[in-house]
Amino acid sequence: MQLPRSTLLDAYLRMQRIRNFEERIVIEFSSGEIPGFIHSYLGQEASAVGTCIHLDDDDYIGSTHRGHGHCIAKGADLKAMMAELYGKRDGLCRGKGGSMHIADLSKGMLGANAIVGGSPPLVLGAALTAKTRGNGKVAVAFTGDGGSNQGTVFEAMNMAVVLQLPAIFVIENNGFGEGTAASYACGTPDLAARAAAFGMPAVAVDGTDFFAVHDAVGEAVERARGGGGPSTVETRCPRFTGHFVGDPQHYRARGEVEALRRDGDPLALIRRRLIEAGLFDVEQFDALDRDVAAEIDDAVAFARAAPIPDEADLMADVYIAYR
Amino acid sequence: MPRKTIREAINEALAQEMERDPNVIIIGEDVAGGEGGSSGVEDAFGGVMGVTKGLLPRFGRTRVIDTPISESAIMGMAAGAAVTGLRPVAELMFADFFGVCFDQIYNQAAKFRYMFGGRARTPLVIRSMIGAGYSAAAQHSQSPHSIFTHVPGLKVVMPSSAYDAKGLLIQAIRDDDPVVFFEHKLLYDLADEVPSEPYAIPFGEANFVREGDDVTIVAFARMVHIAAEAADLLEKEGISVDLIDPRTTSPLDEDSILESVRRTGRLVVVDEGNPRCGLAADIAALAAEHAFHSLKAPIRTVTAPHTPVPFAPNLEAAYIPSAARVAAVVREIMR
Asked: Which GO MF term does the entry hold, naming one (chain A) (predicted)?
């Protein structure tokens, strides 16, 4: 295990923040405090963190409708995130984006995206900016098994290869596009192979294993920073929850989710690996977990207390200048 | 003052803005052309209408970027580049092709600023051709500007002269919001006086093409010239036309239109778009709502019919609003 302890601690904390954040908003949503609807990232934490741990604030990511995990992994402020989900004025998007459009441009997070397959073309543009400026920055397009069937993703992959852009496509294969299984909806189970056919290096990894994601994305990021063009990493990370919070998941066999939580939990895996390596012990993890839980409590308290938008905000920020 | 065609005016605006600001780049299909071909000839196209010719040798492949035929990727890439600091001018060759990439314009670029709480800036220009008249049929001849005008977050520009084309394009490139710049494909060779130095024409300010007292005609792009022809015919009959070219449909210079309608008491709107939920209906409604008591006659519109654009030259000619049709409508409301 060649990673410094500080990086591993950082990775664990980001994963635990995602876990806590997502578990908490299920509760807050179900009690009616959060409007709209919510897509949970539970079970996929290692994919976002194994990717974003390689990125700085001025590298870019484009996300999906299941975007909270990416946002947290990229370093967005938890209080401002929570306030956004609550539709409050102090939210990251001043309460005008919500869960499906949560963005933090100051952190290079170009937005969750409510259009499946919407982000990859945009991420090309961020990669083009980096390439034009020659600054060694990279851009990561997260999409899912569902998004991988969209033409926009095919176009983006081909364009990235043609223009040799510093772009990385992370296909999070969580097993379902809404309520339809990837095994039905994707013509091949090997989504990385599709990307490879566009002419770029592509691998599939266990997306519940932080280290597997870390190594594969690390290689891709290094290649992109060095001018070696785009890559794809398919991270296989079954989601713990339904498509949206409240989805009864009639399409899943009884016991499937329980088995995933028992045997395929990315948090349990990284914890076990770090304990086995002798880098942390159970007490240390428990203390870290308490700290993270307190952060999430603070975020919820902040969101609850934050003011709602002014009615005048309805008309604000359609344009920078109009007439 | 030198006379230049609309094609030359647009080319000059692009070159001058690229010279002024290294963040301005051009992206599109065959904007240079020749990449990878067997002749080794570069800048083989310079755009299918030759509008971007000569920019590649001047600014190089990093700023004049030929792409695969992938409109979603082009529009998305341009939007993503804009929101991260460049000022891309992306070409959507024929406006008809919005059908394969509208999401990136409509759901993405247009909404960034609002849905991210005012924290995004998307200085994107989309140049695209509109208009019938080449027998290019149903998928290369449409004027879908009303659809873009409907979208909050987009600005929509429709120049009718070379002078306006240059000044409005420079404004579009310097503008911090997404702008869709529609070029009418039958107007590229139209020439008028264009200053050599760069200048910007503000959006939302109409051009008063000619002044008259009897009837207000509002028209855009090529229809400005059709309306002017009609005004010539009517002048011989003693009817004077106040012809207004708003130049941008979003923002729209409502004040100038209403002021004119209040003075003349009559309004005809001429538009090459289709009639349902179109620009002509929109402007007619504006006048009905705000200038009703000044009206001496019903508001009339002259538009394309509610059909796709036909191929056969005689049918296409019947599709496009003509000076004769405009003049006939004016005569009706002058009775």
From this structure: pyruvate dehydrogenase (acetyl-transferring) activity
Long-range interactions of B276-282: CB distance < 8 A, separation 24+? B276/B306, B277/B146, B277/B150, B278/B146, B278/B303, B279/B145, B279/B146, B279/B149, B279/B220, B279/B249, B282/B146, B282/B149
Tell me if chain B has a CB within 8 Å of the CB of A153.
no
Query: B11 near B54, Cβ under 8 Å?
Result: yes
- Cβ A129–B176 below 8 Å, yes or no? no
| Amino acid identity at B194 | V
Number of A to B CB contacts under 8 A, please give it.
Answer: 158
| CB B79, CB B42: distance < 8 Å | no
> A93, B119: Cβ pair inside 8 Å?
yes
Separation CA A180–CA A175 (nearest Å): 9
Under 8 Å between Cβ of B220 and B196:
no
The pair of structure tokens assigned to A144 is 């899912």
Residue A220 CA, chain-centre distance (Å), reads: 17
A140 contacts chain B (CB < 8 A)? no
pLDDT digits (tens, 9 = 90+) for A123-158: 999 999 999 999 999 999 999 999 999 999 999 999
Q: How far does CA B280 lie from the centroid of its chain?
A: 15
Partners of A123 on chain B (C-beta within 8 Å) are 80
Name the DSSP class of A109: B
Rg (CA), chain A: 19
Contact across the interface for A132 and B119, Cβ inside 8 Å: no
In sequence order, what are the beta bridge partners of B94? B129
Q: What is the residue whose two structure tokens read 């010539």? A: B232
Token pair for residue A185? 């909806």
Q: Read off the tokens for A294.
A: 């307190």
* B-chain residue closest to A137, CA distance: B84
Residues of chain A in contact with residue B68, where contact means CB-CB under 8 angstroms, are 155, 158-159, 162
pLDDT tens for B19-71 read 999 999 999 999 999 899 999 999 999 999 999 999 999 999 999 999 999 99
User: Which residues in chain A touch residue B24, judged by CB atoms under 8 angstroms apart?
Assistant: none
| Domains and their CATH numbers in chain B | 3-193 (3.40.50.970), 207-334 (3.40.50.920)
Domains and CATH numbers, chain A: 5-315 (3.40.50.970)
Q: Which residue has the tokens 């402007």?
A: B283
Which value does ipTM take for this structure? 0.96
**Rg of chain B over all Cα atoms, to the nearest angstrom:** 20
User: Is residue B217 within 8 Å of residue B241, measured between CB atoms?
Assistant: yes
